[in-house]
Amino acid sequence: MLVDKKTFKNDFKKKLMTLYAEDIDNSSKLHQYLALGSLIKEYSAQKWMNTNNQYAKESRKQVYYFSMEFLIGRLLGSNILNLDIYDICEEGLSELGINLEELQEVENDAGLGNGGLGRLAACFLDSMASLGIPGHGCGIRYDYGLFEQKIVDGYQVEIPDNWLRDGNVWEVRREDKAIVVKFGGEVIQTEKDGKLSFEHINYESVLAVPYDTPIIGYKNNTVNTMRLWRAETIDKDFDLESFSKGQYSKAVEHKYSIESISQVLYPDDTRIDGKILRLKQQYFFVSAGLKSIIRSYKKTGRPIEEIHNYIQVHINDTHPSIAVAEFMRILIDEENLPWDEAWKMTTEVMAYTNHTILAEALEKWSIELFKKLLPRVFMIIDEINERFCKEVFEKYNDLEKVHKMAIIADGSINMAYLAIVGSHSVNGVAKLHTEILKSRELHNFYEFYPEKFNNKTNGITHRRWLMKSNPRLCELITDTIGTKWIEAPEKLIDLIVYSEDENFKNKLHEIKQNNKIRFAEMVKAKYGISIDPNSIFDVQVKRLHAYKRQLLNVFNILNLYYKLKDDPNLDIVPRTFFFGAKAAPGYYLAKRTIKLINTVANLVNNDTTINGKIKVLFLENYSVSLAEKIIPCADVSEQISTTTKEASGTGNMKFMMNGAITIATLDGANVEIHEKVGDKNIVIFGMKKDEVMNYEKNKNYNAAYYYNNDPRIKRIVDSLIDGSLGVPKSEFEDIYKYLLANNDEFFVLKDFDDYVEAQNRINLLYKNQSKWLEMSAVNIAYSGDFSSDNTIKNYAKEIWHVNPVNIKLKKN
């Protein structure tokens, strides 16, 4: 045992006194949270040091997971859980008159990510530590998150997400390990004894200062590291001469210019200065991360030529793909290795995960912008491209194919192509996604590098998304099948024999109902809206994007509303529809969709003639901590993206693990969920892959046909512009045009009828509570297959070639 209750209570009181000269009676909840967080970090410190020391002493191969996002959420509860002292802390604090759950609510969600990409990275870090895999995160320490979302008169309003306003108790600033990152300038090329050398001059220097956060493994001695970089000035950050002259803004403008690099997640890139800042961000953390890794490696005394045997860099989506070129630059310019040897080492070190098939997300940079900001790195990419194009031509003798596969073409650098060419592994994140990559989006590369391509279906950590988020369900599972599932989540399948057990199902229902009651109380307190815990909780929470089709969901709600207006006695189970999503500040259509959802909510919720049979609620400022509350009480999980557009999804897995029934297209990981649970335990609708691809290939889809031939669709679409929603007729004119004039890019109207029928099936299924609970139990039983522990085991074995390390606890 790490600590007993008596020791914990004494340690906590001492920490509170040491930090704030306060006792419990005179301390605020904020100070109590910060004292507890500081104490928990202290409890993990010995393990953290031992982990780092043992990795170094035993020359263990280590993984560095490079990602623009790490959506880690709150850490207090998960750290206490993983240290296996949750009951001790909860009971000890209770005896001191403090509620642990209330302290967890004090913690700000870390503003380090936005959606599934960042949450996946966080789950992976948790799984690596819990499995004893030597794996660390590398990213940016953003001063502000994407934004804090407020809904004002139905519109999204963005305000700064100042998540660091109370500090960050979990991080350790390591200014002694700072790295210099260089931007701009010129490159001088010289030749001596037949060898070229390159000198980078007149560059702008930025100091990258690392902030380390411990990633605590579950009930083991492993504590890995998430290292995030903050941009700071090297020399002066204050111009005293300008200040003395009254030029106050000029006195600090250099400091602010530098610090803007790590100021905010995803700055608006609709203008050129935003694009430059995004590229700066990507190079900043990649360069700092790689230099730091190589510096640590060289301290071991091993030759640089062997680095690929000890280091694995994983590129999470295209944002860090510049790592390929930067690693080459370091090996060639700073370590003086010849090109061919450096290239072989680079491709063995690098691995790449592709997360999308949307062209807009397969990142490209203009040559002009890139060359000016990163002149030497551009030269490296140019050389990589030239050599690769030569290989392609030698194989195919086809200039058109060379042009299609070129990393640099048509004035742009294709970063996904750079990542593919420069990595030994390229993986998709669901079977369907990988299949589409190989057969369509990246088919040329798959033909050229068939050995590189593989699939690793995403996963979620059951420790946060079941054990922490839904403790009563966790207790029921343990009481029913024992504890083996906690460390081997695939053992959840043992629940399958209880899916028809009425006693088990009754307990499952009671837990879900209590979760719904608690959430309804929270909604009443925050929004002033009364919702019925006995209604179906139908939930769609995810990033707001046209392909995720929140619009389809809204259209079904309007259809149901109009049916109730026509027949108030319509026999339906009352239903509460929840939405949660942030729209990118520059994404106009998404922001209009949020306004539409809130307009429909206002219309429906205030219409007494429908007898409260449906309610609609947009959950403001969706976050990890909010997800931990809504997911355990969801009855229906909306996974309704246009088939072939969602790479995987992980929300689908979280809802499944908590017993929600999925209504879904056969897209992303929905396909694999369907394969596991079978037709009877998921509600499938919509076009299949081949139908979508045929429409896109032949360009013969006609949205107007569905508008003109389905009176329900016509009524709904017309309501966007006829004033019947209670807003000016012009309010949703752009959505109307998007559907008809722009031909409904993601087939909302085509799938509408099938979606309505699927929702009708949900209504009928829910009426048979025994059957519904059986479906719920089956979903929970199969959810263990989607644990990120399983995913990480596959990454470790098949891509990274690393083994778990049993960290020995040594006390000083």
TrEMBL record:
EC nos: 2.4.1.1
Cofactor(s) required for function per UniProt: pyridoxal 5'-phosphate
Catalytic reaction equation(s): [(1->4)-alpha-D-glucosyl](n) + phosphate = [(1->4)-alpha-D-glucosyl](n-1) + alpha-D-glucose 1-phosphate
Keyword tags: Carbohydrate metabolism, Glycogen metabolism, Glycosyltransferase, Phosphoprotein, Pyridoxal phosphate, Transferase
InterPro entries: Glycg_phsphrylas, Glyco_trans_35, Pyridoxal_P_attach_site
GO cellular component: cytoplasm
GO terms (BP aspect): glycogen catabolic process
Pfam families linked to this entry: Phosphorylase
GO MF annotation, one: pyridoxal phosphate binding
Family stated for the protein in its record: Belongs to the glycogen phosphorylase family.
Function, in words: Phosphorylase is an important allosteric enzyme in carbohydrate metabolism. Enzymes from different sources differ in their regulatory mechanisms and in their natural substrates. However, all known phosphorylases share catalytic and structural properties. Allosteric enzyme that catalyzes the rate-limiting step in glycogen catabolism, the phosphorolytic cleavage of glycogen to produce glucose-1-phosphate, and plays a central role in maintaining cellular and organismal glucose homeostasis.
Name the record gives this protein: Alpha-1,4 glucan phosphorylase
Organism of provenance: Clostridium felsineum
Lineage: Bacteria, Bacillati, Bacillota, Clostridia, Eubacteriales
